[in-house]
Design goal:
Elements (H helix, E strand, L loop, with lengths): L8 E4 L3 E8 L4 E8 L22 E6 H15 L15 E4 L11 E6 L12 E9 L2 E11 L19 E4 L1
């Protein structure tokens, strides 16, 4: 049996997980970030033990064109080509998503790229992809981030990830 053309991609890291799920039926791509269970950071879970709080995930959706725009921005940033995606003020791209505008339930979210506030010396991490949710108290109690570092590799032919060794973190 052949694998479906569009598959869910999960990237599991020490502090959170990133999931990219295409839905051909809805013509959407869902991007989710989930935090690690407290105390499980930098640990390998035992068999039949969970590591991530998927019920606390933040998810944003894009049409296929929008998902390609996010992927292209990630690829440019991972390769150190910030000038291709930043505006004239140096602001990195972000996208506002409000499910209510499409008649769906859920809070508005912003998904975007950010620079690390205090990058460690010699760090290869240049950028983060983050999702922030607008809830009753205002913009985001929880913000989840995945590190973007390059270079990207074109591994679409072998079904591999196009992200080269990403790291995932949750920040408050």
């Amino acid at each position: 049996m052949d694998k479906p053309f569009l598959q869910t991609l999960n990237l599991y890291r020490s502090k959170s997980a990133l999931q990219i799920s295409p839905s051909p039926e809805l013509a959407l791509v869902f991007v989710s970030l989930a935090p690690v269970i407290p105390g499980m950071e930098n640990k390998m879970p035992d068999k039949n033990t969970k590591k991530y709080l998927w019920d606390k995930k933040l998810t944003a959706s894009f049409n296929f064109e929008g998902a390609l725009e996010v992927a292209a921005a990630a690829a440019a940033l991972a390769e150190g080509k910030e000038s291709l995606v930043a505006d004239s003020k140096g602001t990195l791209p972000s996208w506002y998503r409000d499910p209510a505008k499409c008649g769906r339930d859920g809070n508005a979210k912003i998904i975007g790229f950010y620079r690390p506030k205090d990058p460690p010396n010699g760090s290869k991490v240049r950028y983060f992809l983050g999702i922030t949710e607008n809830n009753e108290q205002g913009w985001a109690k929880d913000r989840y981030f995945t590190r973007i570092s390059g270079p990207f590799q074109n591994r679409a032919c072998d079904g591999g990830s196009s992200v080269s060794n990403p790291r995932v973190e949750k920040t408050n």
